[in-house]
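Morning!

This is the sequence you dropped in the shared folder:
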Amino acid sequence: MSCCSTFCTTTQRQFSPRLAARQLARYRRKGPDPTTRLLRDLLIALNPTNRTLLDIGAGIGVLTCELLHAGFEHATAVDASSAYVACGREEAARRRVAASIDWVEGDFVDLAPRLPRADVVTLDRVVCCYPAYEPLLTAALEHAGQAVGLSYPRDRWYVRAVMAFDNGVRRLRGGAFRTFVHAPTGMAALLRAGGFHLVGRRTTLTWSVDVYTRMNAAAHTHEGHGNVLAVSSRVIT
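The structure's back. Tokens below.
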């Protein structure tokens, strides 16, 4: 599948082959970034059944590979950058999980009707790339059988200041890509309206990492049929 939307065009320019190669080299040296590590650990502790994954905005496939190595059975990895998809395929082959991943290039919102549902849907540092989070999260929830995990910028003045500066630099350089700090309360309300319940949260100075499960799944867990995390918040510097 190819990508031809305006979002894809700006994403291709922002997430270039050079940036993809740099991130892949960093991952091989240091492992996952803090938000990815926190999201991975929350989902592993959740211990979902069946363990199929839909990783939206998968990038070079760090979270996808990490969860497959932790016991997930199959993943669909979606990203709008062809360079990131190429690096992701390379890394998956190196880590011998390529047969367990279906790579899809394009804008998830456009591709959603053609993509399979999964037990777990993830959006690691993805919501901030969309001007409007509603279509993205709504489509993600429709694909999630058991849980949704996401990370997003915290709504703090210093986070907004940094993003405004970065967006200003991109504007001066002629780039069209922008990042956004969306209201956490609005996103939480949409997730609850979609039938999901917050079961885990971790924070860094700039990011929040949340895991939600379907409310009926949470109810079964309270009856002793599963393992749901206690809602908590921890700041990682």
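Headline: The chain has one domain: 6-236.

More detail when I'm at my desk.
O.
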